[in-house]
Structure formats: structure tokens, C-alpha cells
Design goal:
Elements (H helix, E strand, L loop, with lengths): L1 H21 L15 H10 L8 H20 L3 H18 L10 H8 L4 H38 L2 H32 L2 E5 L8 H19 L6 E5 L6 H10 L9 E2 L13 E4 L15 E5 L10 H8 L3 E3 L3 H4 E3 L8 H13 L3 H4 L8 E4 L4 H37 L1
Helix pairs in contact: 1-3, 4-5, 8-9, 8-12
Keywords: Coiled coil, Methyltransferase, Mitochondrion, S-adenosyl-L-methionine, Transferase, Transit peptide, tRNA processing
Subcellular location: Mitochondrion
Protein name: tRNA methyltransferase 10 homolog C
Amino acid sequence: MQSANVLLKKIIRSSVLPFAAQHGMKKDLFLFSRPLSLSLCLKQDNAGTPSEKLDLDAWKKVVKSGLQEEVSEAVSEPKELSELAAAREILEMWRLAGRLVPENISEEQLKAFVECPSKSAKKKYLKYLHLKELHKKNDKRKMDEKRERRLESQEQASETDVVKRTSSVCAWARCMDKAYNWRAAQSMIFGQPLIFDMSYEKDMSVREVKNTVRQIVLSESSNRRSVDPFHIHFCNFQDDSLYHSEFIKHYREAWGRLLITVTDQCYTDIFPKEKLIYLTADSPQVMKTFDHDKIYIVGSMVDKSIKTGVSLARAKRLGLETAALPLERYLLWNSGAKNLTLDQMMLILLTLKDTGDWKKALEFVPKRKYCGFVSKPVHQLKKSLSLINALRLRKGQEEVQKQFAKNYSKKLMQK
């Protein structure tokens, strides 16, 4: 009964009171300090003047208008906010169910989760975020442990020794930084150009673009510390691209001070075509030696789905020479695709430029992908191996025939 009274009070407050105010009825028509009494209202309605009597039709209109306003407010809620709220509820349910779900997720990551095309894609994306969060926690834990060890060592050492050590390390770091910058500046004038083709953003997802930028940052760092660095060119680079925003996140204010060349022009408009060689794993031509007079192009692309032929097709459209690293010539390949990361390609090219030794250069290929180095091409080894097996098989057949003839002659003698 009390719940019914509360419900009637809410209806009267939201509908009848505005109607009573419009028709000039007295405020003390309804008593809210006590339980609602319908007989009291009826007595007041009968005692009032005809102008103050409650019109039921008008009351129904007011109630309907109040309901319509509530429905319109519910509908006017932004669709995006409702989707994000539903996504957060799903994440909370999956977390309670024991699935791999990150503890903290940003609005941008939540929107990316909502835009995933399928449930499996959402699970994979959440697993990626969960592993990324674990890596961050582990890195933070390691940094904290390292900081604690450093503080303990500083406490044990004297203040004077600490000051001398830190000052010498800082001085050494400043000197090395100046030396690296000088080499990079010299390479921009006299160095051999190396081009990163930045025209593959449309062929990759956001996650793949981030991985590409991370690998290019590592490549630039390796090149900067090299004895004879390349003059790096970022060609087909757009200022409003995702590449640019990711580079700003990594380099911040140092982006404008990098000793590299960034341009939105194509490399065919800057260099002569006869000097350009596009390095791609899909090329039928195998690179035999490193040519210091050529300009090598590396496609800035990381594809988890292994889209074969994309860079080769682009090189053919531009009429450029292509080449692939001689992995089968020097390595007994184990498993997986013959695609390498951009930082691995940079280390291989720098080693070839300095030494010209393929064995030293290919040491940067991950060990899990090959069994060992070979002195001859793999196809020649396969031919010799098949010849050895054939000779062994033929020799075995001859021994079986001799043994059969000997056993047959013994049986004839016994008869």
C-alpha cells in the first residue's frame, strides 16, 4: 500500500501540479505530509468553484506529455555513449568470467574495441591490451627494482665518489652524442642514401602502423650509432598521416632536430631510376653483393597477415629494379616467412656496407628461423643429398641381390 501511495505521489508531482499551476488552483489542494487520501481530494474538488474543477482530459494530456519527455530524454542520449557503456559492461563481465581483459582501458582503446568486426577480433584485441599491460607492469617493476638497487649502492658509496661517477658519465654521454650527431650530419652531405617508402599506411591497421614506426625508430638509432651511417630519406611522407602523429609521440620535441630528410615527394622524382633498387622478399632477383653506388629502398610496412606481393607490385608499377636478400644461399631455413623487421634490415645493410661479409650480416636474422649457415647454395646441397641417397639405395639393392643368390644356391645344394 505504501508503494502505491509513493507511485501516486510521483505521478501527481510530475503531471497534476503543473496542470494545477496553469489553471490557478491552490497549492494546498494536495497534502504531501500525510498519506494520500483520495476522499480528501474529492471533497475539495466538490467544494471548489466550477473553474477550479479538475479536467480529466487535460490531466491525461499532461501525463502523456510527461511520459513523452522522459522517452525523448532517453532516446536523445548519444548513441556512442550507450555503445561505450555497453562495451564497459561486457568487459566487466568477461573480467569476472576470468578472461584476458586489461584492468585499465582508455576511451580510444574502448572505441577500437567497439569497432572490431567480430567477437574473435575483440578477444584478440583485448588479449593484446592485456599482454601490453602486463609488459608495462613488468617493466615498471624492473625499473623500481633497478631504482632501489641504485639507491642502495648510492647509500653505500660516498657522496664524493657518486658525484665524480655521475659527472664523468654525463660528460661521456655528451661527447658521444656530439660524435653521433657529427657523423649523421656528415652522412647528409656525403653518405649513401637509404629510402624508407612511407606510402603503405592504407594497407595496414593502426596497430601495424604503430609497430612500423617503432621499428623505424630503432633503425634510425642503429644508423646514428654506426661508424658510416646512411643518409635516411622518408619519401611519400604526409604531415597529416598516422605515421607523423606516431613519430611525434616517440621523438616529441626532438622530431624537428633529427638529421634525416623528410619529404612528401616520391623517390623517383628525386633520384634517377637506374640507381634505385627496391628490397622486397617477393623479388625473383637475389642480391649477390652490396653496391655502394646504388640507392636501396625499404618498404615501411609491417603486416601480420603477410600480404605477399604488395611492395613488389609497387616497384613494378614504377619500373624499378628489385632484389631479395640471399637467405637460402647462406642459411638452412627452418620455418616461417622470409620477412624481416625494419630494424633487422637496417643492421644487415649497415654490416654489408662496412664489411661486405654476408655471414656477419645475416647473423642479425632471428636464430629461430634457420638451422645454420651453409657454404654452398641450398639447391646444390639438395642435389648432392639426393645423389647420395640414390647411390645408397642402389648399393643396398645390389647387396640384397647378392644375399638372395647366395641363399638360393645353398637351398639347391641341400636338395
